[in-house]
């Protein structure tokens, strides 16, 4: 019989090879690279599923754990074997029929998404010009276009995505996913996904969501009434709501978020919080283009692990956002995405365990744990103390306080809209997977989506539920509750740090090590998401901190944030004076950054003189390709 050390090493090597093959194909198809193949993607996905679903491997793992030699295992070997067992149990499919159903569902999904990549989206400009657009451009213009007819045209274009999906196999995919989950003994596909990833049932998941929904329903009703009273009934139209809350302000803030500076801002902010990437190679495809997957993400072709010989196998990350650098609001959105996806990358780069299965982003990894890290770090983009330091125009001038005060006054009373938009997705998917198969028709699903938007969000949504990319992908479907639970954890974690560090999170070098020690090192191993949050904050996870933040009086928010802004401006001025005398500290994130645009390599920090030099080359490339971004 193979000894345990050899078994673990062989498993890790096979996993790394098969997982990388799938992730390489995933990246190529999502980025729409030359020569990408949905057939290769499907085949590599099935190979990974087959590897993770191999009953013989599970039997060998259990033989080591439960056999006569179990007493001779080290604690580290036992931990690794338990994690391999936990992972394989998420994928074991004993029935040949069930395997066929699974493979059919994946094939249908890939075919549908390949067709979606070619979907021709258009909107009409104010002068009547018909313009091709990506989903990202449409969303940006809905938020920022001054002309209502343009906003409405863009919104109606996003509404075409749902019918397209429904006509291209989505109902059949739902049926196949449910059929697969039920062969494994789950209530439905949603129950399977949440149980595997979070370790609790769909019922428990929605008991938590129902509590949040009930607690925030009065805030929604109050906010909708206030919006109509302040801005008129038309403000509630789905193409007007986002603009009514921030349209003009988005334009005025835009100069303080130049996209071409975003990677440098992200790097500097993370470095000052003591965050590093432990030797990661990160490929960043940051700009939008036709045919590119319409959502930011970060995936790992190489999940890191510590070999049995002590060698560190660093992660490799693929990171994408959807900037259109010369569109109003795009820089702010892209920077927030960098902070978010960069948070994911930092988390997974720093999982230090004896097998890569601790760091695979699929089940049994908790969606909520993963999203807590990214959402905690992108939450800084809303803090006046962070904005005072990092929201700077092309001449280096800080965003003025009066704009931030207006932003608080315009947005804070309506923060509940974002929460309700988040919870609408899991409520829609719950209803979708609970539909009897004979009712899984395009017409029924479209009606149900609109009904849930009206019930949860108070009207048709600015971002239609059927246009949310997560719902179509096997990997990210029945996933969105993770964002909701993560937001709960973010507010609870922020409250803890603000109390512990006297209000200081931004540029606090203790934050990175705290996250590393409490949230990152263990990966998907013990103690798990809920216990990690409780261990760090001293409280079980709950929605109290989030609801309290939304219910806080606007005048109190303004007063607190103004104080933080003034302190941050003073600190920034002192730091600038020090740097003038001593020179700026070099940004060292402990990673190789490769900036790409599709098949084109734009800049590589290994070939340039470090990260900052690569950022400078990327900036020049942006200025060249989007001339409006060049400094006057």
> What fraction of the residues are assigned to beta strands by DSSP?
5-15%
Principal-axes geometry comes out as globular
Q: Spans of 5+ residues with little confidence (pLDDT < 50)?
A: none
Give average pLDDT, whole number. Answer: 93
Name the strands of the widest sheet in spatial order: 4-7-3-8-9
Main sheet: strands, sense, barrel: 5 strands, mixed
Work out the number of β strands. Answer: 9
Count of helical segments? Answer: 25
Give me the secondary-structure category. Answer: alpha/beta
- How much helix, percentage-wise, in residues? 55-70%
End-to-end CA span? 71 Å
What value does the Rg take, in angstroms?
A: 24 Å
Describe the 3D structure.
There is one protein chain. This protein is an alpha/beta fold and about 625 residues long. It has helices spanning about 5-30, 40-50, 55-65, 75-90, 95-115, 135-145, 150-160, 160-165, 170-185, 190-200, 200-230, 240-255, 260-270, 330-350, 365-380, 385-390, 400-410, 415-435, 440-455, 480-500, 510-520, 530-535, 545-550, 555-580, 610-625, and strands spanning about 120-125, 130, 280-285, 295-300, 305, 310-315, 315-325, 590-595, 600-605. It has a 5-stranded mixed β-sheet. The longest helix has 30 residues, at about 200-230.
Produce a short descriptive summary:
The protein has 25 helices and nine strands.
List keywords for this structure.
single chain, 632 residues, alpha/beta, two-stranded antiparallel sheet, globular
